[in-house]
């Protein structure tokens, strides 16, 4: 069967980075990979075309695809558009309608970049961890969520942390399954010492482990201690699983162990389809539309290309090809190719297309 990819390049450097992935897809198709691609509009470019951050027709295509490749959205041009149709609304709609509850953020330190990092080399060299963040529940969505006027000159801001058993079970399941394809070790982080949802999180992860994944090593860590350990000695981790809020913070901390925003890929996965077993999925770089460098041909395409590698791995089980692509990125960095954001002394500074071409040649 054809492998259906839906491309949403978006705004700013999104299309520039996506162009490098399109070259890769074309070359892979020549070799018989069988990708069928279609492309739509999202974010500011969609708003300019038809007044919505994503059209219904494009939403249908996203829902029908095996995987969505997303560039980036936003920019100063759309700062004043109405809230419901702001560029980010397109991404939020995709996450919601595709029910993407699991956000995967790898933190990999490429050997060639370890030496020029401002962090201790022995701490980050060879780092390869994966943070699995719950994306659709927790304090970002729990009700009540409001600001109440207390009438005495005081107000009260309320957010509510809510997790049900099924939400914890399914995110834990994703973490354990991914650990089996890696180093077979999951660390679950919560704050059971002060939060009831943390107590439940710990219980459900433990029960899920016992019922279905006892071959995987499981550790529990309080999330604040986990943050400290992530900075002190990150190589102790393989897969970290945590709720939406802790995952947001811990994945940003982990990201900065590895260098530039321009290097960081991500994946968001949904539940497996009852009939086909396939998960809905969206792959995107962590960075935004970078208006400050957009249109100059200098953006780093590695985050987008590495996101495509994740797509090959998780949506199409093309493990050999994913490994090969990731090794090509590493090899090109070894040879000294650098975009401006990761440039250091004595290296070869190149633009977006040259970096993409170098990776493709490898
Ligand atoms: P940003 O990630 O776009 O840029 C932050 C800084 O990193 C900038 O100096 C930029 O030039 C640099 N940078 C980012 N990606 C790079 C790459 N691939 N190569 C080289 N340098 C890179 O974040 P910022 O500036 O906070 O937001 C800009 C716009 O992007 C805003 O409209 C924001 O709302 C949107 N945004 C969109 C996201 C998405 O589409 N998922 C995520 C984050 C921000
Ligand atoms: Mg964040």
UniProtKB/TrEMBL annotation:
Its main location: cytoplasm. SMART domains: Iso_dh (SM01329). Keywords: Amino-acid biosynthesis, Branched-chain amino acid biosynthesis, Cytoplasm, Leucine biosynthesis, Magnesium, Manganese, Metal-binding, NAD, Oxidoreductase. Residues 4-359 form the Isopropylmalate dehydrogenase-like domain. Its cofactor is Mg(2+); Mn(2+). It catalyses: (2R,3S)-3-isopropylmalate + NAD(+) = 4-methyl-2-oxopentanoate + CO2 + NADH. Mg(2+) binds at residues 224, 248, 252. It is an enzyme of class 1 (oxidoreductase). GO terms for molecular function: 3-isopropylmalate dehydrogenase activity. The keyword Transferase does not apply. InterPro entries: IsoCit/isopropylmalate_DH_CS, IsoPropMal-DH-like_dom, Isopropylmalate_DH. NAD(+) binds at residues 75-88, 288-300. Binds 1 Mg(2+) or Mn(2+) ion per subunit. It holds the Pfam family Iso_dh. Substrate binds at residues 95, 105, 133, 224. It is found in: Cytoplasm. SUPFAM superfamilies: Isocitrate/Isopropylmalate dehydrogenase-like. Pathway: Amino-acid biosynthesis; L-leucine biosynthesis; L-leucine from 3-methyl-2-oxobutanoate: step 3/4. Its EC number is 1.1.1.85. The record marks 140, 191 as: Important for catalysis. PANTHER family: 3-ISOPROPYLMALATE DEHYDROGENASE (PTHR42979). HAMAP family: LeuB_type1. Catalyzes the oxidation of 3-carboxy-2-hydroxy-4-methylpentanoate (3-isopropylmalate) to 3-carboxy-4-methyl-2-oxopentanoate. The product decarboxylates to 4-methyl-2 oxopentanoate. Homodimer. This is 3-isopropylmalate dehydrogenase. It comes from Aquamicrobium terrae. The lineage of its organism: Bacteria, Pseudomonadati, Pseudomonadota, Alphaproteobacteria, Hyphomicrobiales. The gene is leuB.
């Amino acid at each position: 069967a054809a492998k259906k990819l839906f491309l949403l390049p978006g705004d700013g450097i999104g299309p520039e980075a996506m162009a490098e992935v399109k070259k890769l897809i074309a070359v892979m198709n020549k070799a018989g990979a069988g990708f069928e691609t279609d492309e739509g509009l999202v974010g500011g470019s969609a708003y300019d075309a038809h007044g919505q951050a994503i059209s219904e027709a494009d939403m249908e295509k996203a829902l029908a695809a095996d995987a969505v490749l997303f560039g980036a959205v936003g920019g100063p041009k759309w700062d004043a558009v109405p809230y419901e149709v702001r560029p980010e609304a397109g991404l939020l709609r995709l996450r919601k309608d595709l029910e993407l509850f699991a956000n995967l953020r790898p933190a990999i330190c490429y050997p060639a970049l370890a030496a020029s990092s401002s962090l201790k080399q022995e701490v980050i060299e060879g780092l390869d961890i994966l943070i699995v963040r719950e994306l659709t529940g927790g304090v970002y969505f729990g009700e009540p969520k409001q600001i109440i006027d207390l009438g005495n000159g005081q107000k009260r801001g309320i957010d509510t942390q809510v997790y049900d058993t099924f939400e914890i079970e399914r995110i834990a399941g994703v973490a354990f399954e991914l650990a089996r394809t890696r180093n077979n070790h999951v660390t679950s982080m919560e704050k059971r010492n002060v939060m009831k949802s943390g107590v439940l999180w710990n219980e459900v992860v433990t029960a899920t482990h016992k019922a279905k994944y006892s071959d995987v090593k499981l550790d529990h860590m309080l999330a604040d201690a986990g943050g400290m350990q992530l900075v002190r000695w990150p190589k102790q981790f393989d897969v970290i699983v945590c709720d939406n809020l802790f995952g947001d913070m811990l994945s940003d901390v982990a990201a900065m162990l590895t260098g530039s925003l321009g290097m960081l890929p991500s994946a968001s996965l949904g539940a497996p389809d009852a009939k086909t077993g396939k998960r809905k999925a969206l792959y995107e770089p962590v960075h935004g539309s970078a208006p400050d460098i957009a249109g100059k041909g200098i953006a780093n395409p590695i985050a987008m290309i590495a996101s495509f590698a994740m797509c090959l791995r998780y949506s199409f089980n093309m493990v050999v090809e994913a490994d090969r692509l990731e090794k090509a990125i590493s090899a090109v960095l070894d040879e000294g190719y650098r975009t401006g954001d990761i440039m250091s002394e004595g290296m070869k500074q190149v633009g977006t297309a040259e970096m993409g071409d170098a990776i493709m040649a490898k």
